[in-house]
What does this fold into?
Amino acid sequence: MQPARSRRELLAKLYGEGNADHLAKALAGPDTGKLVYVNLKPTQSNECIELCRETAKADNREYIQIEGTLLLLQNLTSGNWHATDFLVVRPEQRIRGVYDWDTVMEAVEDEPNRLA
It folds into this structure.
């Protein structure tokens, strides 16, 4: 991870000055004034933590570290698909977009001959 100015300079070198600002903005996402590091104990890297702190300081952003968990990945791979965490779609169902603040999509019963 590099401070914003260094990232922009690298993008300019790789993709040209005309594309650098657009790419830097797209890759950075919305400017929240924060740099959030999710710490996962099994993969914890003090070097990465320090690099994120330095980057936040160089970019004049607040550094926030939260503790993460691998529970979601463990549940995914072990088949513990709780409805609060996963969308399970049975063969007779299809996915329908909801797009509200709580739900992105849901499984609904497929309509017979829907494509006919």
Summary: The two ends are 52 Å apart (CA to CA). The mean pLDDT is 88. The chain has three domains: 1-31, 33-69, 79-109.
